[in-house]
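queue> holo job accepted (flavin mononucleotide)
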Amino acid sequence: MAYEAGVSATAFTAHVERNRPLGAGYFVLEFAATCETGVADVVPGQFAMVRGDWGRDLLNPRAFSVFEAADSRHFSILGKVFGRGTKRLAAAVPGEKMTILAPLGVGFRPARAGVTQLLVAGGVGLPPLHLQAKRNAAAVGPNAVEVFYGGRTRDDLLLLEDFEAWGVKTHLATEDGSLGTRGYVTKPLVSRVREAAQRGESVELLACGPTGMLQAVRKLGLDHGVPTQLCLEEHMACGFGVCLGCAVPVYGEKPYRYCCSDGPVFDAQEVRWS
Amino acid sequence: MNTSAVDLATTFGPVGLSTPFIAASGCFAYGEQFAAFTDLSLLGGISTKGISPLPRYGNPVPRICETASGMLNSIGLENVGLEVFLSEKLPFLREQGLSVWVNFFGTDFETYIECARGLNRGQGIDVLEMNISCPNIKKGGIEFGTVPEVAHRLTKACVEVSEIPIVVKLSPNAGDIVGMAQAVKEAGAMGVSLINTITGMAIDVHTQMPRIATTYGGLSGPAIKPIALRMVHQVARALPGFPICGMGGISNGEDALEFLLAGAHCLQVGTACFAEPGAIVRITDELRNLLHRVGFSTPSEAVGKLKTRPQEPAWSA
Ligand SMILES: Cc1cc2nc3c(=O)[nH]c(=O)nc-3n(C[C@H](O)[C@H](O)[C@H](O)COP(=O)(O)OP(=O)(O)OC[C@H]3O[C@@H](n4cnc5c(N)ncnc54)[C@H](O)[C@@H]3O)c2cc1C
Ligand SMILES: Cc1cc2nc3c(=O)[nH]c(=O)nc-3n(C[C@H](O)[C@H](O)[C@H](O)COP(=O)(O)O)c2cc1C
Ligand code: FES
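queue> job finished
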């Protein structure tokens, strides 16, 4: 089971403090909440539902992993322009008002002594793993985590300088070969998992990214008997377990659990994907 | 008169309400999650997720998608089932100091009756809201909501086994909404709720696939408000005095007053609660202020007060 932080979600209003474009459609939005919130207790993988003053259009809020949380009033998200909602958010200006619900859901398990966490990020799946790497490097030491980070081209690989600053080892992959291994990030990951098996080293996988990547990571984890947690995405209307829209197919007593309230982090063994 | 002179308390048939606002079925689950974000005692009532005799696990994903000023859903009437509802969900609801409406459905005559009878074992239920729309269940569900004669028989059968007043939730997919309302009224329904979602679809052009797994789903939100208003108005005109609970796209105080003017006696708010768990509390304040500005001192004063536009003289050629 994934690690649960307890119920600290708050509904609040925040203002955009800064909008930091990172190129290739990526942006970091920094928020200042107008009241005390529970975001400082965020567990990596937990998320925020974010909506601007959008009237009767773009009805439902959009889900974003919490990227950084400085204190109970300040946090940020890292987004990528995808459709209409993310396009508006990418164009947000300082002072703009947002309504937010955060932190929501169940995040990743913290690092354990003697187990190396291999963090597998694809594209915009970076934010929760960036936070996990930062926390683990500080709490357990930089060798407690290694980052596997894949994207289409070098422009998709963001904030590499942060990992360097924390002393966290990175394995990079791009589909066009412009940076790191050419191909999918699962390529260096497979070698690393095999190497760990040979050396008798304990590892676990934490992954967030496109579904294709998550399916490959899940299979790898299951095939090698490596504990694997996946941070999933489902279409969400509410984000707090009332609309029942974000069902995730699972094995077990019931055929579905909910991405927003039981996840978004799920054990790979639990997820019912063919 | 200041706004505090506006008294929002009202009645719906025999049911007293502290405000005209009920949280709409399927948009508030069983109320528990909202307690973390909003003061439930400020609501007039809650209508639960639709209950069936046995638990249902719902439809495959994707179950929802957003559309222009609205959303499509095909949840599949997933719910905890009658027994779990009575033992685990109802006690919480009954303690919130609001009107408890239990939305229910079956898959055929027998299961509708079984559910109505079973819910009568529960303590503290004010209204049974019978959902005859069921766009998301395959088996025969459509007829209950679209054929007046069938709706009449179904309502009558459930009214006969229920001490709790039954309000029938009508489907906008019915051809003759007035005929449907009349049929359930004559069968003994205490009132009607309208409207449920309107069947629709959306297509992803990149994958050339429907955006939700079941192809068709129920449209809700501001996009459906004009249709909902029209239906409330038609039923109110045809059946004066018959209690109508109006809904469909209410997202602010003005929307709420429009429904009252069209003839609704109380209101439900659904989709708006997803983006904003405190939406109903905000809308309640907005309605209170608006009633004051427009010159009504209670919501019931506004009910059905739609004026007719002055007519131009007819042209004769
Ligand atoms: C738990 C969770 C965490 C996420 N974290 C991040 C993050 O840190 N950074 C980031 O850039 N993106 C993240 N996403 C994805 C992000 O929510 C979508 O990219 C965004 O909702 C797309 O909205 P849009 O209006 O631009 O796209 P549109 O296609 O116009 O959106 C239409 C509808 O589909 C929904 N939708 C579309 N794509 C997705 C998706 N992949 N997941 C969920 N709903 C979707 C939207 O919310 C909206 O309701 C996360 C999603 C989830 C569920
Ligand atoms: C996700 C979702 C689930 C719903 N589930 C039910 C249900 O179980 N029973 C029911 O009678 N109506 C259900 N409805 C319909 C609403 O109660 C309401 O009639 C409709 O959404 C119109 O109101 P709105 O525009 O304010 O949402 C559901 C609506 C949504 C959006
Ligand atoms: S998004 Fe509404 S239940 Fe998960």
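queue> The CA atoms of residues 45 and 128 of chain A lie 5 Å apart.
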